[in-house]
Amino acid sequence: MVIDMSKEDILKALADAVIAGDDDEAVEYAQKALAEGIDPQEAIVDGLAKGMAVMGDKYERGEVFVPHLMIASSALYEGMDVLTPHIKTDATSRPVTGVIGTIEGDVHDIGKNLVKTMMAAAGFTMIDLGHDVPLENFITAAKENKADLLSVSALMTTTMTGMDKISEMLLENGYRDSLVFMVGGAPVSPQYAQTVGADGTAKDAANAVALARELTSKLVPAEERWSDAKLSVTKTKYKDAVLKKKAAATSAGNVTLETAKQVMEEYNKVGTKGTSKMSHADRIFGALGDKKVDRLPVYPLACGVTRKFVPCTYKEYATMPEKFAASAEAAIKYLDVDTFVGLTDLSITSTDIGAGVTMPEEDTPSATGHLKDYEDIEIPEVKKGTRIYNHIQAAKLTMEKLHKEELNAPFVAFHEGPLLTLTQAMGADRVLHDMNTNPGDVHKALDKITDFIDEISTAFFDEGAADAICVDNLWSNNVIMSADQYWEFDGKYVYDRQLPVFKKYNAPYVIHNCADAVHFDIQIRKFGTAMYSYAYYEKNRDKGSKNYADLIPEYSDICCMMGEVDPIQFMNNDEATFQNIRNDTSKLMDEVLQTLKDNGRQSKYVMSTGCEVPPEGSLLAVKAMVDTVKEVGEDRYAKIIG
Ligand code: B12
Question: Per-residue pLDDT averaged across 551-566, rounded?
């Protein structure tokens, strides 16, 4: 019961409720504010939002993590739900109205949610369209709400191109001058924002709010901007610009298929480049064991992209064992890579425990239909009818093909780890939130899921379906959670329950993690991981993103690292890109070899990309990387390692 509080006390209590993430208190003090006649707008801005700002600052300093922000934002919204209906609005003083969403084909929504929350805390009315939003929905929602601001988020190079289409639709419909158009997400640069004709971008939520405030403050009243007359003038004004955009977008062709054909043609004419002194298997296992090799092994994570050698669709690659195996075989044959990692998508295990999956014909399947309750999780047996069973059959077939004498390449099977499976099944925002508010249920679910994961690894081993298994333990990301929290909700399940299975089969533990600032001490040192596929983000170096120069000295006594050429550039199919890839690969190889030498190692590194090459990427670009290692690798190896 709250009584006798000054206005300042109530505002402070509202801020504290958000900081503590206490939904009930946020509601209670919001009601108290109304009862005491405090202006609801003031209660939001000087109360709730102040609390959110404190949490935002702590997040920037690395003192709290994404789950804490989510809990704080839940309290913020509870309080706002009470206060917002009481805000007096007229046409001229209405709060900034923003539409936000993550673009079609993209399920990443953590960053988008943070931007939405911070904007709401700044007093904006935010209409959230969610993730995987069809492009036209952005346009319709903007018009229906006479929006001041349209904020579009994308986390993948493959989906960010939708921003240009949204821009085109804004011009075409005559809406462009009626709102501020902002784009954002990790791959979006200020240059890209400019190219698509957006008004701006920001690297994080706090900067997004500042920019949105500045840009929307210059707008004339909504009724004026969205009047039919204004829209019709704008439509005419941009007629030429629309035609130009449409012309530029005319079919770029199927890059993956075209480049696959070219690589095959070259192979049929001249075979593969270079002479090999060692087999693929000897080279990969050599690097794993730090033995002397002829050159460093190479494998850009060209998983689904090699389906175009078959050719087959991504859906077929992800669901039909013979297509999957044929893609792997073709990768070794035509590209001459040293291994194949059997990644199709990250939603196999979550589909099997009951979640929904979207399966586009030519893109990576994604987990979309989340379960309602943790109790809805049903662990199946690894048998016919499950996606993982199918995946194991695909792996068995691949083993037969890759072990043929002329190829002799090791196959690395791939499956999701415990926390990744759970976040895919329930939704990441839900799980990250519940880790703090409802940890018991999260642990119960993880407990069940770990049994399933262990059963899967066991089945791969028993069936002889892999030379090694790579587990995606994605959530070890120090922006998203602390080392302690990672340990509690993923690490200890891996350590106590998964690793004994790998030990039983005397198999190396291999991890793939494309996050930006990983808790390597747990994932490598504590787990005793034998091989680690990592991504490096130069711009997040200050936040803890690490490269070969950090990782080899620290972990090469136990672990063979595998990274870090940026896979995003493989989307482009032009000579300048190939040259960049050649330069990056060559430079990385020299520096890695020198660092290995300086640390008394002989070969513990695989030249790779930090994450998989996008499904629509260029196979000529992949070939440029592989050929560079093959052409100069032996010489450099001999020169530096001896
Ligand atoms: C977590 C994660 C996932 C989770 C997402 C869960 C969720 N609900 O969001 C899951 C496991 C589902 C996932 C799936 C996949 N992922 Co993922 N994932 C990541 C990861 C590790 C972190 C992203 C994140 O949440 N960061 C933390 C938040 C706080 O930061 P943020 O999103 O950048 O947002 C901030 C800013 O960008 C900005 N911002 C964001 N939006 C906006 C909007 C506006 C208007 C403005 C102004 C600013 C702004 O403000 C935000 C807050 O400060 C990234 C790697 C990375 N470091 O980015 C890969 C990454 C994005 N994923 C990647 C890939 C490839 C995939 C998959 C295809 C993997 C697969 N084979 O299945 C699938 C995609 C499925 C699909 N169709 O979408 C690649 C994308 C590569 C590419 N082609 O561009 C990345 C970059 C990893 C890599 N190194 O290659 N992933």
Answer: 95
Query: Could you identify the residue written with the tokens 């158009």?
Result: 181
Cα–Cα distances (Å) from 116 to 127, 289, 395, in that order, read 9, 48, 42
pLDDT for 171-210, tens place per residue? 999 999 999 999 999 888 898 899 899 999 998 888 999 9
Does the Cβ of 568 fall within 6 Å of ligand 1? yes
- The domains of the chain, with CATH numbers, are 1-88 (1.10.1240.10), 93-250 (3.40.50.280), 255-640 (3.20.20.210)
* Mean pLDDT of the region 330-349: 95
**Higher pLDDT among residues 59 and 30, named by residue:** 30
With a 6 Å cutoff on the Cβ, whether 157 touches ligand 1 is yes
Residue 606: predicted pLDDT: 97
Residue ranges in 36-153 assigned as alpha helix (H): 40-43, 49-60, 66-83, 110-121, 135-144
How far does residue 279's CA lie from ligand 1's centre (Å)? 37
pTM: 0.89
Q: Does the beta carbon of 107 sit less than 6 angstroms from any atom of ligand 1?
A: yes
Nearest CA to ligand 1 atom 31: 111
Least confident of 45-54, 269-278, 338-347: 269-278
Nearest CA residue ID for atom 49, ligand 1: 184
Report CA 607 to chain centroid distance, whole Å: 21
Q: Is the CB of 516 within 6 Å of ligand 1?
A: yes
For 315-341, what is the mean pLDDT?
A: 96
The protein residue whose alpha carbon is closest to atom 75 in ligand 1 is: 366
Residue of minimum CA distance from atom 72 in ligand 1: 345
For 310, how many CA atoms within 13 A lie in the half-sphere containing its CB?
21
Residue 311: cis peptide before it, omega within 30 degrees of 0:
yes
Q: What is the pLDDT of residue 585?
A: 96
Distance 566 CA to ligand 1 centre (A): 15
